[in-house]
Specification:
By secondary structure, this protein is of the alpha/beta class. 29% of the residues lie in helices and 25% in strands. Its cofactor is FAD.
């Protein structure tokens, strides 16, 4: 069945951190504009509502993961998932955004008509097909599949007698106290889960095929705490945010320019955190340079403390096969387990898997090019949010939302109905993300491209994007504006 279509000025896809932020910026700038958020799940929060595994937390500090417009007032800079979820939901409720969300609406198709200058968006809702029209389409759906995490094919997994759990689908009742738990993985999820399961009484082995860079930082931000004591909340938040932006940018740039020095610095820290004589070369010495993949942050040394106390063992090896009682490794070692957790990554999807169609032609995303890493070549009145890989997601989301507001203001001021990035064929191509984790490499063939020059380049640098997206002109040779009559 199909329901009757309705029209809104802006249709936002996704009610997570990005979607709520987008709604705030739009209604603040244009209180007269109509908008709706279509959310495929049953609740606000996106990532922070989906993931329920023990210890889930941010891997960015909350002074940059929080919205620019709403200070984070929590006591921890590295916050737990429920606290972040409350922050997002409170932001939506305080601003009436929650009233504009349609839940259980999975957007499957969006068709642009240049004759009408409209998007017709098709969504599935409780067995029915719902259609809406919108003048502007804003995708805030993230970049990974919510219904399925990534698990490689492991030989013999059907032989294992215990539960095998992916963190993206954590069971409500999973008793780990007194159990031997093997976590397969070395990324942010694995290093979060390990200490959390130790706290619940498990004996944990973290099995990694190759190491990641892992560093500790205080759960509380001492500078931010001092600022809060002497300044109003908003001013203290802005200064703490600026300080953390500067520090994270400096660390990334130093890593890119002097990778061996950064590697040595990280190793020196780990030598202080780990037991004397610990085999750092095997378990904490990645094959890649710092920030070729995202650094893993642990608060207050929790992972290293668990290792020192003998509650968590790092195992660096490959899996030969699952057995009835655990895993047999390539080295011949038998690793016993009552529970196996596959913290093996994500499956990427672009714009929630929506089919984009412009004037009857389906847009092949690998053949398109990203404009300012937030719009697509030859796709009118469409923007998307994909956050930074080397910094907080929300830093980029805020900038994209501010740019969309300025773009719409420019269109209003000049009577334009349509804004389309048009690619010059002389612009060379490059992969959209110059980043090497497995979930990105597996998805390069479904992502759009970036170009070899502005405005088609993706800069993983907030301080360089800031003047362009917040203050720079919205007019350039690549952006084509048209009025309704054209």
């Amino acid at each position: 069945m199909s329901s009757t279509s309705e029209h809104v000025d802006v249709l936002i896809v996704g009610a997570g951190l990005s979607g709520v932020g987008a709604a705030y910026h739009l209604q603040k700038a244009f209180p007269w504009r109509t908008y709706v958020i279509l959310e495929m799940r049953e609740a606000i929060g996106g990532t922070w509502d989906l993931f329920r595994y023990p210890g889930i937390r941010s891997d960015s500090d909350m002074f940059t993961l929080g919205y620019r417009f709403r200070p984070w007032l929590g006591d921890k800079a590295i916050a737990d998932g429920p606290s972040i979820l409350s922050y997002v939901r409170e932001t939506a409720a305080e601003n009436g955004i929650d009233k504009q969300i349609r839940y259980r609406h999975r957007v499957v198709r969006a068709e642009w008509s240049s004759r009408e200058n409209l998007w017709t968006v098709t969504a599935e809702h409780d067995g029915e097909t719902v259609t809406m029209t919108a003048s502007f389409l804003f995708s805030c759906s993230g970049y990974y599949r919510y219904d399925q995490g990534y698990t490689p094919e492991f030989p013999g997994r059907e032989r294992f007698s215990g539960p095998i759990v992916h963190p993206q689908h954590w069971p409500e009742q999973l008793e780990v106290a007194g159990k031997r738990v093997v976590i397969i993985g070395s990324g942010a999820t694995a290093v979060t889960l390990g200490p959390a399961l130790v706290e619940q009484g498990a004996q944990v082995s973290m099995l990694q095929r190759s190491p990641s860079y892992i560093i500790s930082m205080p759960a509380r931000d001492a500078v931010a705490d001092r600022l809060r004591r002497i300044l109003p909340a908003r001013a203290a938040y802005a200064l703490a945010r600026a300080k953390n932006v500067a520090l994270s940018t400096a660390m990334y740039q130093f890593s890119q320019r002097y990778p061996q020095r950064m590697r040595g610095w990280i190793r020196g820290l780990q030598q202080r955190w780990l037991p004397p004589g610990y085999d750092i070369d095997t378990h904490f010495n990645p094959r890649y340079n710092p920030w070729d993949q995202r650094l893993c942050l642990v608060p207050n040394n929790d992972l290293f403390r668990a290792i020192r106390h003998g509650k968590l063992e790092m195992v660096t090896d490959s899996i030969e096969t699952f057995t009835e009682s655990g895993l047999r490794l390539a080295s011949g070692r038998e690793l016993d387990a009552d529970i196996v957790i596959t913290a093996t990554g994500l499956n990427l999807t672009v714009f929630g898997g929506v089919d984009l169609v412009v004037d009857g032609a389906t847009i092949g995303l690998p053949d398109s090019m990203a404009y300012k890493a937030m719009m697509l070549s030859d796709v009118p009145n469409f923007a998307f949010v994909i956050g930074y890989t080397n910094a907080s997601w929300t830093l980029k989301a805020d900038l994209v939302c501010e740019y969309v507001v300025r773009l719409l203001r420019h269109m209003d001021a000049h009577g334009y109905a349509k804004a389309t990035p048009v690619r010059d064929e002389s612009v060379g191509t490059a992969p959209f993300l110059n980043f090497e984790p497995g979930y990105v490499l597996r998805a390069l063939d479904i992502l759009p491209k970036q170009g070899d020059r502005a405005p088609w380049t993706l800069r993983q640098n907030y301080l360089r994007d800031l003047p362009t997206l917040r203050y720079g002109k919205v007019t350039d040779t690549a952006m084509r504006f048209e009025s309704a009559a054209e």
